[in-house]
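Appendix C reproduces, verbatim, an entry submitted by the partner laboratory led by Prof. M.T., so that reviewers can inspect both the input and the predicted structure.
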Amino acid sequence: MHITIDEDKCCGAGQCVLVAPEVFDQRDEDGVVVLLDAEPPSQQQDAAREAASVCPAAAIEIHV
C-alpha cells in the first residue's frame, strides 16, 4: 500500500487523524493533512483505508 495526499483538496476536517492517527496528522496553522507514513505497516492499513473513505474532500488516495 502506498498513500498519497492532495493538500489542495484538503478541507481540514480532521477525520483522517481521528481514524488513523499513526498515519495522518494536521498542520497547526491551517489544519491541512500531513502524511506521517506513506507506506504504513499491515496493522495500520485498514485504518488508512477507512480514513480515505471518510475524507469529505477525497484528498487521500490509496494505491495498492
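The beta strands are 2-5, 24-26, 33-35, 60-63. Additional entries are available on request from the coordinating office.
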